[in-house]
Write a structure and sequence with these properties.
Layout (H helix, E strand, L loop, with lengths): L1 H5 L11 E7 L2 E7 L8 E5 L2 H5 L8 H12 L5 H13 L6 H16 L16 H13 L18 E4 L4 H17 L5 E7 L8 E3 L4 E3 L2 E3 L3 H12 L13 H4 L2 H7 L7 E7 L12 H21 L4 E5 L4 E2 L11 H14 L1 H4 L3 H10 L9 H10 L5 E10 L6 E9 L1
Parallel strand pairs: 4-10, 5-9, 5-10
Antiparallel strand pairs: 1-2, 2-3, 4-13, 6-9, 7-8, 11-13, 12-13
Helix pairs in contact: 6-7, 8-11, 14-15
């Protein structure tokens, strides 16, 4: 069976792609893309094709998929048309197989040989010119949704952590600004552990990279001493998926804010970490190996940070609920369902304010993660590592992601 799965023409296995419904006049379509960036292609399909896409699980032959389509829709999906669809998916690197494995190996080598992790979203999600970017960032602070520059009640205190969104920066910039204003006015350390959400998913719960990050405001250096300590203590395996950083936006979106508010202060370094694991791994016996990896990572990083003797600030790049058809709901969210979600989000964040990771995980487990809290792993890890007295929700908002009112919620928080 392994060889058959490897051959996308026999038992096609779709990669972990993202999709979104779109509407053009009265016609509905699905657009698919690769969140890892291994493929830069997009594929727009009629809605009924999506039935076929859902059967590309590595267990069904083309004949079985055609039979399932006939049973569901009462019409034949011609074999030559199905073969062309599979060939197109394979050409776009959307199917698991030899072509994808070769592309991954090349991408991994290119990433590790590169001098820095280059900015992937400058000129798209934020200004590519450094001077224009500074103006853009200042505008987020002074906009009507932003915090302005009024003194914070935590001014000159030692800041221990932040949570900021990773939603599209042009839209959510003012919400980021609420978190970074606290950092701007606080007594800031020179080391930042940035915990990003891996939106494309990981095989392990964490992926660390030792690459410096480049932005239009300059290069942000990784803390070489901390990386060396982390590896020496047994953390080497958590670098296996460092390629996942190449196209992930969740850490990149934090860096221009960090550079802007730290300008004029002593130089700083970062440790970039991507996080991906569900709350159920804390209680599900079948996921005990994953939970053990989480414990191992937290223990190693805690020890490395302690041995370094450095003050540090944790930055969690996280979104909260994902509602609507784009995220698997059968219908668009209503104003009522959003307001109910907002109330639930704020209740969920109470144990985060109280620095209680177990209660935070339990809250999401009890509701069955029906609202798809994508930032769980990031916030949970932050709570396991942070040394603070309390956290505070500073601002809460949402973004609309498609024509069907699909909604993402997010918040800014600060910890002292």
């Amino acid at each position: 069976m392994t060889e058959a799965i490897r051959d996308p023409t026999k038992f096609p296995l779709l990669r972990n792609l993202q999709f979104s419904p779109i509407k053009e006049k009265e016609e509905q379509y699905m657009v698919l893309w690769d969140p890892t960036g291994l493929s830069q292609e997009k594929l727009v399909l009629p809605v009924h094709y999506f039935f076929i896409i859902q059967h590309l699980d590595g267990e069904h032959t083309l004949e079985q998929i055609g039979a399932a389509y006939l049973k569901r829709f009462g019409e034949f999906f011609m074999p030559d048309r199905l073969q062309r669809l599979i060939a197109d998916l394979d050409e776009k690197l959307f199917l698991e197989g030899e072509r994808v494995e070769a592309a991954k190996q090349k991408a991994q080598a290119d990433y590790r040989n590169a001098p820095v992790r280059q900015a992937r979203f400058s000129g798209k999600s934020y200004e590519a010119d450094g001077a224009k970017l500074k103006v853009q960032l200042d505008g987020f602070f002074t906009s009507k949704e932003g915090p302005d520059f009024k003194p914070s009640e935590n001014k000159d205190k030692k800041i221990k952590g932040l949570v900021a969104p990773h939603y599209e920066l042009r839209q959510a910039g003012p919400i980021y600004a609420w978190a970074y204003k606290e950092l701007q006015e606080a007594e800031a350390p020179s080391l930042f552990v940035i915990l990003g959400t891996s939106t494309a998913g990981l095989n392990r719960p964490f992926a660390v990279t030792d690459k410096d990050f480049e932005t239009p405001l300059g290069v942000v250096p990784v803390d070489r001493d901390l990386v060396a300590r982390f590896k020496k203590l047994g953390g080497e395996s958590f670098f296996d998926e460092d390629l996942s950083h190449r196209n992930e936006h969740t850490i990149e979106f934090q860096l221009p804010f960090l550079q802007q508010v730290m300008a004029g202060k002593p130089p700083f370094t970062i440790l970039p970490v991507l996080c991906s694991f569900p709350p159920t791994c804390m209680v599900d016996p079948d996921m005990k190996d994953l939970a053990a990896q989480v414990e191992t990572f937290v223990g190693i990083l805690k020890q490395a940070l302690t041995e370094s003797g450095r003050d540090y600030c944790l930055i969690g790049s996280a979104e909260l609920a994902h509602l609507g058809m784009r995220y698997g709901d059968p219908s668009p969210p209503t104003d009522f369902s959003f307001h109910r979600c907002m109330q639930t989000d704020l209740e969920m964040l109470k144990p985060v304010e109280e620095l209680n990771p177990a209660s935070f995980a339990s809250f999401i487990q009890k509701e069955g993660d029906q609202r798809r809290i994508s930032g769980f792993a990031t916030i949970y890890t932050l709570l396991r590592l942070i040394q603070a007295e309390k956290g505070t929700v500073l601002r809460y908002d949402r973004g609309i992601t498609d024509q069907y009112n699909s909604t993402v919620t997010y918040a800014s928080m600060a910890f002292f």
